């Protein structure tokens, strides 16, 4: 038995069937694979451009196409937006090629078109024609918004695009369209977020609106974009991209006609407008337009609305920033520039490259505190407002007027050539201010003390100029109300020196630069020493001995005098206690000068007495010298009263040089008067001697009548001593008798001596 | 002042150009400088005094490549140079086995203009590298427009991303410009491959190209000769280069089922094949037109089935096989198709090292057949780790294939 062997023909048939089955399987697998490949691609995370690029590559591969491109109808031409197979510099990307019959049919029917063998030349772009195209397919991407976009496949292979191919391509095109839309949406969301961020950067309105116009153009893919604001019934074109001068010239327009005026459409066939809503209503309008009647993509209006909201927020932010910036640079009461704005402005001017100079006037109101005290702070504020108004009227348009603080105003003068100009303007401002103003129904006399300086650009600094102008103002004020003082370079320099000294004085005591000298006060008849006056001395390591009339005021200004004064009293007391232990020193007094500033300290009397007692002295051992003007305040009376009651002797220094108000002598427990050196030196002088003699005689008479002791200061000659003695003055001090001496030398004077110092004889 | 108006030009200008002159040189001297000098001198001698306009160097990776190029360039001067390391070379009907020698081709301009360039970064972004390479090579050929062009593309063989590189080139030059070339080899060592441009040696991740501007159309031909030994299948699971499942079954099992009884599992007695490399079986990646791209495959030491380049997702494949005679059958066709209708001076060919493995002791036959078919036309080529032949679609990266272009 033999197995059935198929006949040759049967074998052949089986072979053929197998081949067909293999072919069918191959085709099926190939179709499956390419569908999987395409779907896989659509599902991958990629941007639109990348997706299109990859998709066109896969389509070229899977459909054996020499060229695959995505093209869009623009007018009567087809422009390629992406391809696999066109050279990158192919004109199909830029100029495109005329829309042919196949394209027209595809767009009209929204169905794919496939041609085989007779592909019309008009439907094939130039560079593709050379490839010997035998077959082509046009697939509409979708209805909206890519209704004008096609997928086109060209292949040189002599094989038609079969119906299943076209079906697959149509399905892929639709999915590609959806995927692109989806990515577009994502991209738009990202873009919106990014643009929102870009808008938020701007704190100034103009650049904000300008950027908004640029972003709007890109966001909406418009040909023109513009931003209109509505203010005071006017619609104003604030920023734009691509508007022609002719269109721009039509603006502004009345706000109420914004919707129907041709200018608002910019002559474009397609325009979208969205209002920018803010708390106080719509204040701006975003407009995007297209040159051709090509509708905007669906959803563009919504995108613009979101963008408009971002813009609204950014505009609010810009307003808030503006308000904050105003607050940071404006004085809230007067609306003038504040101190930081002033410094910044001055700094800018001083940095400018300009041969002219910059002037600064520092104005301080005279008597402002009195107004505040008398009529209250509201009146003070009203006065400042009125003064600010006056000053505004006085300055030149380019000058900067600032409130420096309290009752201080500063005027910055740009482009000044010389100091005299500063002085002139200062005088004018001074004159303009010198007036009676009505504040809270009360008439108030106003004036200002003004200091001025001139600064060289590139050299002067704002802080130095303000410091020097301030110093000049103090000099002016010292001359009386309503004065102007300008500092030249030297004056500024001196003022700076003074400031340096002031700073160093604060450290002088801790550095051991302060010490006391003692000048004896003699009984003029017996030549016995009755007391010493403790005198403060400052030996500066560079300046040498600094005179007391220089540093005492500085110590008073800084308040350092309180601590220094306390120290002086303690030192003097300690020294006196030492001398009291000597047999010749018993009953010796110590005179110590008090600054008015010291008297104003709380518990000044107790502290003074504490120091005296701490040294083991009795208050009656100490003479405290005060000057006339320090009486003025009530607490001085209290102080003097308390000390007087405790036994301290109060000395009125420099009597006769100031007010010499006798009622103070009555009110205060003064026991000793010091006759000023200026009168003493005159008692023996030629001519004027008579007057001084009369004054000294009068002072002595007053002292005598009130039961006070008089001390003559500054006795330099024997004649003066003789004259004073003859007038009945019992105590005196001066170079004739002894210079102020260090403690050790002063102590030697206490030893019993047969006569007055030899030098006195020589002089005499 | 009157201006001379030039006389109108003739409507059609027929440029009279010199024919393309070709010189081939070879040396197997052990010293790189000596070998380079000798091969270059021989190649230049073939130009009979015409200045060289393009130099192509194929060399074994065993040379000191810098010294080699330096020696070649000293002889060839400033003429642009490209080249690659190989896994064997062939010219004049002769096979130079892997691990030996340097071959130099010197070309005069003839009717062509050449522009060369090179890039790195193929591994990081092959598409971008391809674009840069194409633009640079085209620019190097000069601004004059040419009617036609082709790109000769050489890339490093172990860097992968060959199709991406090709995608990038294609993006720039488009369908009208065919691409031919190959991936550099390294005598089957699979360690390091290099391409050359002028004095530079670029290792894996580098690529070089020649823009060939031509007055006449240039065509690229590719054939492999492999035939399927089974039904169409779908690769149903893969991970990179590892094929895990075919038709839902273990891939190795399915692959083995197709082995014919005659297959000898002894490896070709050449230098160093990949472990378990079965040159006689491969995947045929089914193409839309029914043709197949061959994708070499092997079973590694761990018993995993691997390919040299990743197969696409759910790739439709057929297991393909071949014998030496199958491969040799297409050799003459490729040459004849390349030369058809052309008055060519040289055939540049790129054959896969996998073919050499299958050919085994008949290895030298392919080189001889190529020269036989080319007749008087010089032939010059190397054994690659993958061949380029982009003709119609964007896909144009092959394995186990012979590709060629005639100039």
TrEMBL record, chain A:
<dbReference type="InterPro" id="IPR050706">
    <property type="entry name" value="Cyclic-di-GMP_PDE-like"/>
</dbReference>
<dbReference type="Pfam" id="PF00563">
    <property type="entry name" value="EAL"/>
</dbReference>
<feature type="domain" description="EAL">
    <location>
        <begin position="498"/>
        <end position="754"/>
    </location>
</feature>
<dbReference type="InterPro" id="IPR001633">
    <property type="entry name" value="EAL_dom"/>
</dbReference>
<dbReference type="InterPro" id="IPR000160">
    <property type="entry name" value="GGDEF_dom"/>
</dbReference>
<feature type="domain" description="GGDEF">
    <location>
        <begin position="356"/>
        <end position="489"/>
    </location>
</feature>
<dbReference type="Pfam" id="PF00990">
    <property type="entry name" value="GGDEF"/>
</dbReference>
<dbReference type="InterPro" id="IPR029787">
    <property type="entry name" value="Nucleotide_cyclase"/>
</dbReference>
<dbReference type="GO" id="GO:0071111">
    <property type="term" value="F:cyclic-guanylate-specific phosphodiesterase activity"/>
</dbReference>
<dbReference type="InterPro" id="IPR029016">
    <property type="entry name" value="GAF-like_dom_sf"/>
</dbReference>
<protein>
    <recommendedName>
        <fullName>Diguanylate cyclase (GGDEF)-like protein</fullName>
    </recommendedName>
</protein>
<dbReference type="InterPro" id="IPR043128">
    <property type="entry name" value="Rev_trsase/Diguanyl_cyclase"/>
</dbReference>
<dbReference type="InterPro" id="IPR035919">
    <property type="entry name" value="EAL_sf"/>
</dbReference>
From TrEMBL, chain B:
<dbReference type="InterPro" id="IPR013702">
    <property type="entry name" value="FIST_domain_N"/>
</dbReference>
<feature type="domain" description="FIST C-domain">
    <location>
        <begin position="251"/>
        <end position="391"/>
    </location>
</feature>
<dbReference type="InterPro" id="IPR019494">
    <property type="entry name" value="FIST_C"/>
</dbReference>
<dbReference type="Pfam" id="PF10442">
    <property type="entry name" value="FIST_C"/>
</dbReference>
<protein>
    <recommendedName>
        <fullName>FIST-like protein</fullName>
    </recommendedName>
</protein>
<feature type="domain" description="FIST">
    <location>
        <begin position="51"/>
        <end position="250"/>
    </location>
</feature>
<dbReference type="Pfam" id="PF08495">
    <property type="entry name" value="FIST"/>
</dbReference>
């Amino acid at each position: 038995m033999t197995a059935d062997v198929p006949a040759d023909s049967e074998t052949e048939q089986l072979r053929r069937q197998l081949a067909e089955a293999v072919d069918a399987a191959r085709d099926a697998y190939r179709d499956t694979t390419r569908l999987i490949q395409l779907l896989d691609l659509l599902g991958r995370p990629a941007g639109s451009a990348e997706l299109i690029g990859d998709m066109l590559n896969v389509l070229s591969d899977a459909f054996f196409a020499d060229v695959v491109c995505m093209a869009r109808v623009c007018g009567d031409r087809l422009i390629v937006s992406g391809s696999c197979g066109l050279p990158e510099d192919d004109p199909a990307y830029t100029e495109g090629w005329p829309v042919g019959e196949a394209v027209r049919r595809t767009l009209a029917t929204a169905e794919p078109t496939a041609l085989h063998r007779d592909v019309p030349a008009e439907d094939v772009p130039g560079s593709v024609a050379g490839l010997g195209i035998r077959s082509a397919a046009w697939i509409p991407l979708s209805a909206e918004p890519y209704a004008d976009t096609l997928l086109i496949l060209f292949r040189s292979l002599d094989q038609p695009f079969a119906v299943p191919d076209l079906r697959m391509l149509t399905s892929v095109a639709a999915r590609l369209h959806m995927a692109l839309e989806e990515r577009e949406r994502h991209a738009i969301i990202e873009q919106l977020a990014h643009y929102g961020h870009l808008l938020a950067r701007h704190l100034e309105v103009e650049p904000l609106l300008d950027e908004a116009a640029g972003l709007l153009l890109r966001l909406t893919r418009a040909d023109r974009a513009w931003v209109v604001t509505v203010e005071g019934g006017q619609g104003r074109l604030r920023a734009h991209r691509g508007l022609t001068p002719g269109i721009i010239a039509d603006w502004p327009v009345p706000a109420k006609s914004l919707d129907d005026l041709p200018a608002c459409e910019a002559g474009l066939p397609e325009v979208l407008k969205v209002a920018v809503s803010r708390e106080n209503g719509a204040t701006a309008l975003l407009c995007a337009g297209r040159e051709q009647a090509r509708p905007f993509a669906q959803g563009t209006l919504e995108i613009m609305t979101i963008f408009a909201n971002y813009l609204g927020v950014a505009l609010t932010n810009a307003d808030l920033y503006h308000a904050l910036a105003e607050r940071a640079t404006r004085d809230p009461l007067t609306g003038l520039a504040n101190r930081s704005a002033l410094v910044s402005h001055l700094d800018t001017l001083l940095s400018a490259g300009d041969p002219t100079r910059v002037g600064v006037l520092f104005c301080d109101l005279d008597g402002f505190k009195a107004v505040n005290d008398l009529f209250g702070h509201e009146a003070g504020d009203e006065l400042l407002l009125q003064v600010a108004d006056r000053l505004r009227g006085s300055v030149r348009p380019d000058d900067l007027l600032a409130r420096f603080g309290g009752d201080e105003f500063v005027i910055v003068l740009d482009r000044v050539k010389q100091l005299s100009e500063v002085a002139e303007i200062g005088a004018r401002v001074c004159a303009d201010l010198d007036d009676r103003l009505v504040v809270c129904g009360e008439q108030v006399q106003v004036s200002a003390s003004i200091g001025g300086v001139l600064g060289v650009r590139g050299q002067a600094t704002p802080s130095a100029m303000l410091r020097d102008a301030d110093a000049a103002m103090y000099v002016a004020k010292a001359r009386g109300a309503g004065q102007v003082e300008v500092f030249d370079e030297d004056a500024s320099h001196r003022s700076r020196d003074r400031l340096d000294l002031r700073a160093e004085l604060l450290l002088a005591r801790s550095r051991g630069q302060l010490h006391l000298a003692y000048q004896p006060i003699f009984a003029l008849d017996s030549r016995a020493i009755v007391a010493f006056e403790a005198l403060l001395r400052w030996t500066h390591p560079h300046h040498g001995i600094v005179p007391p009339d220089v540093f005492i005021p500085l110590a008073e200004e800084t308040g350092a005098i309180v601590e220094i004064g306390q120290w002086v009293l303690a030192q003097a007391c300690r020294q006196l206690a030492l001398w009291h232990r000597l047999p010749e020193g018993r009953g010796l007094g110590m005179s110590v000068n008090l600054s008015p500033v010291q008297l104003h300290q709380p518990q000044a009397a107790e502290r003074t007495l504490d120091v005296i007692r701490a040294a083991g002295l009795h208050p009656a051992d100490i003479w405290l010298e005060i000057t006339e003007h320090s009486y003025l305040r009530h607490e001085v009376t209290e102080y003097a009263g308390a000390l007087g009651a405790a036994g301290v002797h109060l000395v009125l220094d420099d009597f006769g040089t100031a007010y010499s108000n006798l009622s103070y002598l009555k009110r205060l427990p003064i026991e000793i008067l010091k006759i000023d050196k200026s009168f003493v030196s005159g008692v023996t002088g030629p001519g004027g001697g008579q007057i001084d003699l009369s004054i000294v005689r009068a002072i002595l008479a007053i002292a005598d009548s009130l039961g006070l002791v008089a001390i003559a200061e500054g006795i330099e000659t024997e004649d003066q001593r003789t004259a004073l003695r003859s007038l009945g003055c019992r105590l005196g001090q001066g170079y004739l008798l002894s210079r102020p001496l260090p403690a050790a030398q002063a102590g030697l004077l206490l030893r019993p001596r047969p006569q007055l110092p030899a030098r006195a004889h020589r002089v005499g | 002042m009157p201006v001379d108006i030039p006389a109108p030009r003739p409507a059609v200008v027929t440029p009279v150009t010199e024919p393309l002159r070709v010189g081939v040189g070879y040396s197997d001297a052990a010293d790189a400088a000596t070998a380079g000098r000798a091969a270059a001198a021989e190649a230049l001698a073939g130009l009979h005094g015409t200045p060289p306009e393009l130099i192509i160097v194929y060399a074994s990776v065993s040379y000191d490549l810098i010294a080699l190029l330096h020696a070649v360039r000293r002889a060839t001067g400033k003429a642009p140079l490209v080249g690659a390391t190989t896994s064997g070379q062939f010219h004049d009907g002769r096979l130079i086995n892997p691990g030996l020698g340097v071959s130099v081709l010197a070309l005069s301009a003839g009717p062509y203009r050449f522009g060369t360039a090179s890039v790195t970064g193929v591994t990081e972004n092959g598409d971008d590298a391809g674009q840069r390479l194409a633009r640079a090579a085209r620019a190097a050929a000069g601004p004059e427009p040419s009617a036609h062009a082709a790109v000769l593309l050489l890339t490093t063989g172990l860097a992968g991303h060959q199709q991406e590189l090709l995608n990038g080139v294609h993006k720039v030059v488009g369908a009208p410009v065919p691409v031919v070339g190959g991936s550099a080899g390294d005598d089957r060592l699979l360690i390091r491959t290099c391409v050359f441009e002028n004095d530079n040696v670029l290792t894996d991740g580098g690529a070089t190209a020649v823009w060939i501007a031509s007055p006449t159309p240039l065509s690229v031909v590719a054939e492999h000769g492999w035939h399927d030994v089974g039904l169409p299948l779908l690769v149903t699971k893969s991970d990179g280069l590892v094929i895990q499942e075919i038709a839902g079954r273990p891939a190795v099992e399915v692959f083995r089922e197709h082995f014919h009884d005659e297959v000898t599992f002894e490896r070709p007695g050449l230098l160093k094949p990949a472990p378990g490399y079965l040159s006689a079986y491969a995947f045929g990646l089914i193409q839309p037109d029914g043709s197949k791209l061959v994708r070499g495959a092997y079973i590694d030491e761990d018993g995993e089935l691997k390919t040299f380049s990743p197969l696409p997702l759910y790739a439709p494949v057929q297991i393909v096989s071949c014998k030496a005679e199958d491969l040799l059958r297409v050799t003459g066709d490729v040459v004849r198709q390349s030369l058809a209708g052309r008055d060519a001076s040289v055939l540049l060919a790129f054959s896969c090292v996998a073919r050499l493995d299958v050919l085994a002791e008949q290895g030298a036959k392919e080189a001889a057949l190529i020269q036989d078919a080319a007749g008087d036309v010089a032939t010059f080529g190397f054994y690659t780790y993958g061949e380029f032949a982009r003709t119609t679609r964007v896909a144009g990266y092959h394995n186990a294939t012979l590709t060629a272009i005639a100039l």
